[in-house]
Amino acid sequence: MAAPFDLALEALGWIGTAAFATAGALTAARKRMDPVGFLLVAGVTAFGGGALRDLLLGLPVAWLSRPDLALLAAICALAVFFAAPRVERRVALLLWADAAGMAVFAVLGAEAAARAGAATWVCVLMGVMTASFGGLIRDVICGEIPLILRREIYATAAAAGAGLFLALHAMGADRTIAVGAGGLAAFLIRAAALGGGWSLPAYGGKAASGAADPVPGSTERTEAARRASSAP
């Protein structure tokens, strides 16, 4: 029978996969993709960071031996495909789903690196990578400025959560408590940043430009309005 901590990690893995797959699918909805696009974007968001982490650590890529997680990501993607037209405020949902996935995978990534015997700073780096690189690939595919490259507090929150987990674990805290505290810290920092508009200073005082419009079709409406206002 699996130990309680292993069961907790398994549950967190499911939660993080579902959250990131949903966030990826919501981005696909903003881009008006077909079902294949939803599956692709949801998959790279859910598994991209973890796959890169495993490759760098010389470990088997975890999700390739977990068809249950792949199926979960596919179900989330298709559920969003059919439900997104009836879901309002998709941008807010995307941000909160992404924040939940980031918090979970920041700690799980650091935990995986620690079990592999990596140095502490590598564990933090692997936590940030696991939490953010799937979203980075998603944003590149969808033609947006990656969230991690904007001035929003994102990678910083992931690093804080991974660092807190490692610090508590080094001090002898129960691993379940360390994982929970690290994930909660990452989520609360990201939530505070979203709610309070916190951000890191950007070069020149301006945020990165070029992200896609948050509402599908807004570009077309804006351009149409501009042409109408300039017509004689």
UniProtKB/TrEMBL annotation:
UniProt entry keywords in alphabetical sequence: Cell membrane, Membrane, Transmembrane, Transmembrane helix
Subcellular locations according to the entry: Cell membrane
Protein topology in the membrane: Multi-pass membrane protein
Transmembrane segments: 12-29, 36-63, 69-84, 91-112, 118-141, 153-171, 177-200
Pfam families listed in its UniProt record: Gly_transporter (PF03458)
Region (Disordered): 207-232
Stretches assigned to the Glycine transporter domain: 12-83, 95-169
Homology family: Belongs to the UPF0126 family.
Record-given protein name: TRIC cation channel family protein
